[in-house]
Amino acid sequence: MSRKASPARKPSPHALPTEQAQARRFGKARTARSTAILEDYVELIADLIESTGEARATDIARRLGVSHPTAINTIARLKREDLATARPYRGIFLTEKGEALARRVRARHRLVLEVLLALGVPKEAAEADAEGIEHHVSEASLKAFSDFLKGSRIKKAS
After folding, report:
1. Residue 44 sits in which domain range?
2. Distance of CA 53 to CAs 83, 91, 149, Å?
3. What's the structural domain count of the chain?
4. Collapsing DSSP states into helix, strand and coil, what is residue 27?
């Protein structure tokens, strides 16, 4: 029985990156997902303390749309990571390390949001998208975003 020779495959215009490069990218994404939860909690705790004077586990759970036990477990992780402290019947407070992280996350969120709005993304969609993008964007991209916004502000002023 004779077999027909299969035609030579054309190289894909979307060639795979090297194994090492791809593994590095996926590793970065896994790390970002792992820290995204902590960042969301720290940012929310800072916002709650700023707006209401306190951050309670029940408020955190409701605002993040998670169960109370999930919030308690993540708050315990924040404490282990030295990002927060909790006092019985007094709520959750950020440590200096937690406050610094909250400031970085807020700044990153604002920058991503401003870029999306400058690109014409509707406000509601931009807010929702910024929540995800902010945790995965690199420092190089953040710098490019900042430079882009500076350039667009200069053009508008002219």
Report:
1. 22-157
2. 18, 10, 33
3. 1
4. helix
